[in-house]
Amino acid sequence: MRxxxxxxxxxxxxxxxxxxSAGPASAAWKGYIxxxxxxxxxxxxxxxxxxxxxxxxxxxxxxxTVWRSVDDGIQYSVTVIDTxxxxxxxxxxxxxxxxxxxxxxxxxxxxxxxxxxxxxxxxTIDLPNKGGRTTAAFWFVNGRIVELQAHVPAxxxxxxxxxxxxxxxxxxxxxxxADDALELPMPK
Amino acid sequence: xxxxxxxTLLGASLALMAAPAQAAxxxxxxxxxxxxxEAPGDVKVSTGTYRGQLAGPHESIVFRSxxxxxxxxVTVMSFMQAQADGATILGEREYNFQNEKKVLMDTFxxxxxxxxxxxxxxxxxxxxxxxxxxxxxxxxVNGKMIVLEATILPANGDYASPDPGRFxxxxxxxxxxxxxxxxxxxxxx
Lengths: 188, 189
Description:
The complex is a heterodimer of chains A (about 190) and B (about 190).
Chain A: H1 2-22, E1 29-34, E2 39-44, E3 48-56, E4 60-71, E5 74-82, H2 90-102, E6 106-115, E7 118-126, E8 133-141, E9 144-152, H3 162-167, E10 182-183
Parallel strand pairs in A: 1-10
Antiparallel strand pairs in A: 1-2, 3-4, 4-5, 5-9, 6-7, 7-8, 8-9
Chain B: H1 2-18, E1 25-30, E2 35-40, E3 44-52, E4 56-67, E5 70-78, H2 86-98, E6 102-111, E7 118-126, E8 133-141, E9 144-152, H3 163-168, E10 183-184
Parallel strand pairs in B: 1-10
Antiparallel strand pairs in B: 1-2, 3-4, 4-5, 5-9, 6-7, 7-8, 8-9
């Protein structure tokens, strides 16, 4: 009886190890902070930096800086749109960015975001043509639009909590950043 | 047949007389504040105070009228020194508006087309303790927060009335679009 029980334990443990090793490898989450931009967040994987453009009817055309990582099939990005020259239009610029994000897409969530004395919005959309699901948060920080997006492809786990973990990781108080947060590299 | 027609006419006339008297809608404009809107009845001006945890205390100008047990209100607050914080100040006001109330609608508001667009939000809430229903619209323009609220009071009871929507959607920031003959709003001294 005892030997049969031991065999069952060993089989179960082996199965668990095999299942764990067969699952997708998730990278560790790291804290990042940008003192000049005034925010911090957490994301898994290695962040890549790139430049881009943002265009809105009210905002006009602006340079953007994008930090991007991919982990376990989920794309994470933080986009900073420099609108410091028009910061007096903060509310409309932020509203326009939110509107563009969800325009002509299936809107699943549109809710208040409130972090460290700032109000923004959190939205979740389904992209057309089975393009997957994106959760985003929008903030206006020191004259800049800060947009966090986490995207899961249609064949991924669209209910994963990792998207929420990412967009909710933002903080505007440096003291709330992870102790070992890495300084975000800026484009050259 | 003639008797029936006369009776019908009389009945219709009586029904019209028995219905609550509704005031005509007028267009109002403030060139100084930079907006116009339409509302029924006589719009009275008063001053008030708004306090937000983030916005702090601010004096407000309130334009208000009541018609058919619907209260129409436009509140203007100046944040000239904090325009870059407009998104958060506006978000806080929207949040306070719906906090601890039943939200029936919360959607984008956009006034004026193209590059002149002003983005805000439109929110409908049910007031607690059967206090009625309020439709609010929230904008931040040229350093001013402008809030339009139309409250259908329980005495009216027609919560599907289109009048709050007409009021909220009448806001104009490009004053060339203001209706001709609009009454200039008097500001408090």
